[in-house]
Amino acid sequence: MLARTFYTLILLLLAPVLLISLYKKRPNKPRFGSRWKEHFGLTPKLTTTKRPIWIHAVSVGESILASSIIKELKRQSPELPILVTTTTSTGAEQIAKLGDLVEHRYMPIDFSFAIRRFLKVVQPKSLIIIETELWPNTLHHVAKQGIDISVINARLSEKSCRNYAKVQYLFNSINHSVTHWLCQSNVDALRFVRLGVNPKQIDVTGSIKFDIKIDDSVEQQSKALKELFGFQRPIWIAASTHKGEDEQVLEAHKKVLLQHPNALLILVPRHPERFDSVFELCHSQNLHTIRRTSKQPIENQTQVYLADTMGEMLTLLKASNVCFMGGSLIGHKVGGHNVLEPAALNIPTITGPSFFNFKEITESLIEKDGIWVCQDSNQLAEQINELFTTPQKSEQLARNAYHLVEQNRGALSQTINLLQK
Question: Binning pLDDT at 50, 70 and 90, where does residue 90 land?
């Protein structure tokens, strides 16, 4: 109780900063509008009279993961009511693509008054948390009402484990509330045990990220996109890039153009509010750039194709010959993004040296020679050129990664089975 009280006081001090960041108007970022009240527990009633399963997914990445779980749950039980909460408006935009399969509400800020209001309206019968979004007050009040809480696809880096250990009393409060931990790996499970989680409450399912389903539409749309680009052009994609990384990617592309003058870079910034500034950056680097939303024709002199849309990553990846996964060339700020998507699409992949968010997966790929690691923009350019000019290396790299994905599928069905139990 004392630990949560201290935590709540800190949250109270930080709340203005968090809210300013959340509500700040940014280009291409969906707005909350009048729905901002939901963050304070003023939640509209659900259309269903049945108690729903509540799934919490913070933002876009977790929402995409939640979508695969939701589709499988609804396939097995079409009448099952499901409520999804997200914290961000971009996450909400992703969930909206599920249409009538679910209802969406914004997650209340982790104040007791807001959580109690929310629970009074929603009355969920269980809570499923995607990965490790652990809010102490939320977990306490949900558990207090006798509602089962499952954390699925749970992961815990060594750094996060040490940080939780520094506030062990607070983690104990979290631990006492969670019913079931479904971990991505044995390493993650052991770290939770180190923090005091009962091993009997833990199951290792593997990562749901391996269970990537590629719709037929992805193949069709990517083929149309390649036709638009020109089938004979060497194309590489820089996926989910961050501020400070775009400059390095463009520098690498200039070196690639020296060896492959007709090469095309598909540049996909991670956050939509950066689309405009990245477009301006490309022009400042004297690179002929076309935005996807402009619908302009791709010309021979087009050097950069700026993907300023959301939810099209698989299509863009499939239209590429080589992938560089962003969030990995800017020190230890981000820790990389999901390298399994290009692997599942048979696209040879390169990452920067900072991939701690996907450490186990990336190291498994390195061990199987299923991914290359570049240290800087110079090496990135060298590796892109090598993969362009030696198709056998490119094919082998992609094949090794694809086999690893295939060998590790099954986490989704195992997770669903455990949740149903």
Answer: confident
pLDDT by residue (tens digit) across 362-387? 999 999 999 999 999 999 999 999 99
Q: What is the rounded CA–CA span in Å between residue 388 and residue 381?
A: 11
**Rounded to 5°, angle at Cα 365 from 360 and 368:** 125
13 assigned to some structural domain:
no
Q: Are 152 and 73 in contact (CB under 8 A)?
A: no
Residue 72 lies in a domain: yes
| Cα(384)–Cα(297) distance, integer angstroms | 25
Beta-ladder partners of 130 = 152
Lowest-confidence segment of 120-124, 125-129, 187-191, 207-211 by average pLDDT: 207-211
Query: How far is the C-alpha of 304 from the C-alpha of 312, rounded, in Å?
Result: 17
Q: Where are the alpha helices (DSSP H) in 303-376?
A: 313-318, 340-344, 359-367
Burial of 226 (0-12, 13-18, 19+ CB in 10 A): middle
Which of the residues 38, 62, 103, 245 is marked catalytic? 62
Tell me, yes or no, if 62 is annotated catalytic: yes
**CATH number of the domain that 188 lies in?**
3.40.50.11720
Asked if 400 contacts 409 with a C-beta cutoff of 8 angstroms, the reply is no
C-alpha triplet 160, 161, 164: angle, nearest 5°:
85
Report the interhelical angle of 186-194 vs 158-166 (nearest 10°): 10
pLDDT at 133: 84
The answer to whether 375 and 331 have CB atoms below 8 angstroms apart is: no
Same domain, 122 and 177: yes
Cα dist. 397→82, 247, 321 in Å? 40, 26, 12
Rounded Cα distance, 305 and 364, in Å: 31
Residues 126 and 235 in one domain: no
Question: In this model, does residue 332 exceed pLDDT 90?
Answer: no
CA distance 86 to 105: 7
Strand ranges inside 263-419, DSSP E: 264-269, 289-291, 304-306, 322-325, 349-351, 372-373
pTM summary value? 0.80
Give a yes or no: residue 341 inside a domain.
Answer: yes
